[in-house]
């Protein structure tokens, strides 16, 4: 997917360029800056000495040296002073300038840390929103693989209110589903009978899954493939192909495969990404999943989180992926 949040060490990212959250001297420091300099080796410092420093919001580029990337883009984020001194604008400028430099050097992939969230003190939740907004705007016009790299769970935050609301939504529906499924299974099963050997038989029927599709339903699903349904929905929504796959956070090459192959079998996150891009209702989303051979279930926390956002009418795939990442679930997209 064009934008992906990953938990990793940025010095190990095998991409065209990584971004270094540097200080104005560009001569190394602590945190991400120090880690990148140590991994790149002494030649990086020598190269940085020729750059003449860097102003907040600006960026400069060097080779990657011993790192697994071709380049390192060094940018200086703002120090947090309560948000009244243009910190947001400066932080946004960091991301825009880095993306422009990456494009200028024909990079196909770039990995960012959450800039300014270390010793510079920028609140992580707000910094994340700035990063997502700028990257999203860039990807609407450009094709590039962008990673937001966080080192550990404590480095990544969504709002406490949203996390709590989703948690409650999951708890209410996840537990209820377990109870309802058990009740249906028991009620649909024949009464166990004791055989001549003294043992109960047909106990296994207690665990038969209800809701198996009928032959008629299965045949109906075969009439239109997932690919055909997707293309029809795009036309019905008055969208272009590019508008749809970019809104779905789907790579253009993957979309081309789906368009060119009526029998293409996508992953569940890919299906749901398109459902979100098309702003389908919950029932329409379930229909699209069935076309690809999947079901929507309250026994899956991943599914419940998607349902939460659909029921709220929030079809922002980047916000949804932030929540999925916070709950350690798979992200939507390719």
Automatic annotation (TrEMBL):
It holds the Pfam family Macro. Residues 1-167 form the Macro domain. InterPro entries: Macro_dom, Macro_dom-like. CDD domains: Macro_OAADPr_deacetylase. It comes from the Bacteria. NCBIfam families: PRK00431.1-6. This is O-acetyl-ADP-ribose deacetylase. It comes from Candidatus Allofournierella pullistercoris.
